[in-house]
Amino acid sequence: MTARSTSPRPDEDDVHLSVHLHDVRMDFAACLTAALLFVKDWRIYHYHDAVAIIPGDTDGLPRLPNERLYLEP
Predict the structure, then answer these.
(1) Percent of the chain scored above 70 by pLDDT?
(2) Are 31 and 53 in contact (CB under 8 A)?
(3) Which of 33, 34, 43, 55 has its CA 20 to 30 A from that of 69?
(4) How much is the pTM?
(5) Is 34 exposed, middle or buried (0-12, 13-18, 19+ CB in 10 A)?
């Protein structure tokens, strides 16, 4: 079993973030604030529908790399 890193905002719910890049789908867990700012940033620089927040369980998903960078606009 591998240890999952903890949320930078443990008081927030985690969400399932799905990212499509060049026919590769990557799924991550992220706190809600980081996920929303990531989606906003991604849609500015990449294809609008290539990222989505999916409702449901985040168990087993790796955390969004550099998640803390998305905590401030």
Answers:
(1) 93
(2) no
(3) 55
(4) 0.83
(5) buried
